[in-house]
Amino acid sequence: MSLIDIFNSHKDYYTDKWEQYIYVYDMELKHIIEKGAPLSLLEVGIANGGSLQLWERFLPQGSKIYGIDINPYCENIKYEPPIELYIGDAGKEEDLNKFFGNQQFDIIIDDGSHICPDTINNFYRLFPRLKNGGIYIVEDVIASYGKYWKGGFRKKNTTVEFFKGLADAINFDHVMKNPPRFFNKNLKNELEELNKCLASVAFYDSMIVLKKYNKPKEKPFRQIGAGLVFPVAEFPIPDEARIPLKEDENLFT
Predict the structure, then answer these.
(1) What is the pTM of this model?
(2) What is the extent of the structural domain holding 149?
């Protein structure tokens, strides 16, 4: 059943989403849902609790769904397995360790406070807990443009500007071919580490979707060539360009 059908037929705990989210989730999660293997999902911020019930119906049988919320009133929400709810701060390592230990997740959704520094801090805390091949989703990025959430159009250190900057992590090998004259060491190290695992960052209306490689990237991608005829211009072909592609070297899910 599609998430669209599940959402339209939902009668239990209340949840609300911007309408485009449902289509994006259906599209972005389709490839891992169709495999049929059990998944683990963590959602930060659950409000009235309905979204966790949607995920239970949407994910393959045997999946585990976890919610964490800082609001103590969420204790009034009662679930049955496979849903588990924790009251705590996803931005604090001690709370994450307390509830989840070293556990990692296939899907992580940040629907928390939406305050820009919180969203960025959550990413630093939670992205390392995402499994290889996993998907990390940030909801309500609209907050990045509002003063209440410490946002603003093209203002530094907002959610949108931070995640825009991760394009440099994906392209870090090329950045280092012409490195900046003055390169902050911490930033360089951060981009280099993310380059090993961050496969993509996609921006949708008020939503950001990040994916991890299905295994760590250990070397830069190579430029490859095919064909033997040059009707316009002949290019020098390095030996490595002729090494055949192998399916087991595919880093993308």
Answers:
(1) 0.95
(2) 3-222
